[in-house]
């Protein structure tokens, strides 16, 4: 772990004030530096976290450990957020936790305006609970911070906790050597600065606007895919859980000349293939024929630059799917074919490896926020001819049929992979320019809304950070 500042050494008195802990985390995470700056604020302006949460310490909690009971049918289940899911931009394919289990333990359910904090493994990742997340079940590995709205604005509390001051203080409560964790009592006395009323309101409004943007973006993306299904008069995809288990199907020997792996011929994949194939030939094109480029970068050795000026912020395949990807690693600009790794506005990315049923085959549209990041070679790059086509192609690939057709192309038993040649040959529905523009416009609007949401949250945190450094004014 790197020391935040060499001229800011750890003092023996800090250990005395921190329960005589001898592990590095409380001292080198920036927490003490944050405390020193916070102590410069008027003492009456600092409140412990439990003083601004609903029910005091009871407003900082998690669901508790118990065996989970999953179901397949939405009629009997509640969407369940794992510790990685809470940060995901797309919540449309979550597992379902039994409604009976959620009813028996109400702490599973989350409410709008809460702050969720990962409390084990990677500590301190946070998300603000949006209206589309309210009522979902959430893992015990995420701490709930439920603000008392009569005492503090939820958006401001989130902006502070996720700021340069809040995150180090949260992480400093971490304990454990192999599997690190935090408990509610470790956060109860975390100092919360009460700033000028206008500052708190501005931060709150920015966070709420970001949340509203993301809710609307998700709605627009779902509608765009539904519009594609409706325009081409395709039947609504049969949910996977309605297929018999185990899946048993048959295929002719002629159709198996190129592929003999069973998943390729699964009934849900065959349904997707048949629905697209029944369209007139004039309405079908291969992905390779209607894109400027389509490629998977070569495997490369990762060389990182110490100075951001000499590198591109680097994202993994999992990073791409979160609400606001960030990175403190910078891939060296001197790497061969580095341009093939850098993302550009207008691209579509598809996870090219992983377990079937996971992220593999799921598309992501690159907007201005992701543009300029370097990204792992384990993502298919689809480069449409224009932004108009980006919106339309993404709308098609993001349908349940599109995802199934991409996923069925995966090959390999241990870690399945996609092959760019086979992706090029996938046939998708195609239509005239004006119709494509109409069907793709919601996607482009959603991309901009998500990009703006990242900007709004960053602005909220910057306002809070600056106000604290300026003494609370």
From TrEMBL:
Parts of the chain that traverse the membrane: none
UniProt GO MF annotations: endonuclease activity
Entries under SUPFAM superfamilies matching the protein: DNA methylase specificity domain
This protein's UniProt keywords: DNA-binding, Endonuclease, Hydrolase, Nuclease, Restriction system
Alphabetized PANTHER family for the sequence: TYPE I RESTRICTION ENZYME MJAVIII SPECIFICITY SUBUNIT, TYPE-1 RESTRICTION ENZYME ECOKI SPECIFICITY PROTEIN
NCBIfam families: antiphage_MADS5
Protein name: Restriction endonuclease subunit S
């Amino acid at each position: 772990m790197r020391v935040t500042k060499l001229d800011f050494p750890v003092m023996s008195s800090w250990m005395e004030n921190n329960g005589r802990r001898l592990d590095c985390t409380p001292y080198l995470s920036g927490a003490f530096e944050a405390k020193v700056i916070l102590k410069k604020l008027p003492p009456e302006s600092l409140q412990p976290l439990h003083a601004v949460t609903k029910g005091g310490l009871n407003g900082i909690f998690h669901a508790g450990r118990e065996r989970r009971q999953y179901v397949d049918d939405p009629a009997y289940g509640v969407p369940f957020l794992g510790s990685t899911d809470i940060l995901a931009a797309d919540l449309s394919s979550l597992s379902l936790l039994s409604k009976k289990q959620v009813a028996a333990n109400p702490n599973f359910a989350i409410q709008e305006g809460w702050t969720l904090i990962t409390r084990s493994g990677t500590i301190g990742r946070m998300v603000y609970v949006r209206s589309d997340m309210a009522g979902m079940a959430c893992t015990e590995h995420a701490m709930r911070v439920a603000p008392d709205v009569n005492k503090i604005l939820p958006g401001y509390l989130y902006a502070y906790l996720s700021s340069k001051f809040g995150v180090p203080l949260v992480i400093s409560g971490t304990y454990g050597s192999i599997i690190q964790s935090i408990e509610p009592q470790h956060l109860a006395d975390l100092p919360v600065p009460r700033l000028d009323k206008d500052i708190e309101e501005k931060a709150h409004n920015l966070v709420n606007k970001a949340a509203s943007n993301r809710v609307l973006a998700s709605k627009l993306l779902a509608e765009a895919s539904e519009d594609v299904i409706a325009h081409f008069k395709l039947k609504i995809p049969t949910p996977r859980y309605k297929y018999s288990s185990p899946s048993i199907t048959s295929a002719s020997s002629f159709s198996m000349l190129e592929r003999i792996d069973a998943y390729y011929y699964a009934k849900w994949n065959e349904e997707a293939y048949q629905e697209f194939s029944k369209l007139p030939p004039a309405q079908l094109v291969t992905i390779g024929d209607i894109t400027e480029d389509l490629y998977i970068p070569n495997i490369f050795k990762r060389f990182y630059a110490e100075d951001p000026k000499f590198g591109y912020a680097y994202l993994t395949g999992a990073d791409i799917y979160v609400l606001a990807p960030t990175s403190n690693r910078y891939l060296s600009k001197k790497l061969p074919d580095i341009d093939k790794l850098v993302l550009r506005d207008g691209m579509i990315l598809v996870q090219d490896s992983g377990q079937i049923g996971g992220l593999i085959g799921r598309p992501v549209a690159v907007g201005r926020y992701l543009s300029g990041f370097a990204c792992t070679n384990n993502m298919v790059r689809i480069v449409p001819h224009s932004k108009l086509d980006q919106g339309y192609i993404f709308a098609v690939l993001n349908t349940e049929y599109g995802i199934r057709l991409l996923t069925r192309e995966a090959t390999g038993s241990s870690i399945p992979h996609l092959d760019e040649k086979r992706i090029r040959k996938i046939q998708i529905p195609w239509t005239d320019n004006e119709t494509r523009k109409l069907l793709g416009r919601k996607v482009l609007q959603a991309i901009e809304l998500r990009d703006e949401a990242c900007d709004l949250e960053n602005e909220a945190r910057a306002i809070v950070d600056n106000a604290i450094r300026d003494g609370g004014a």
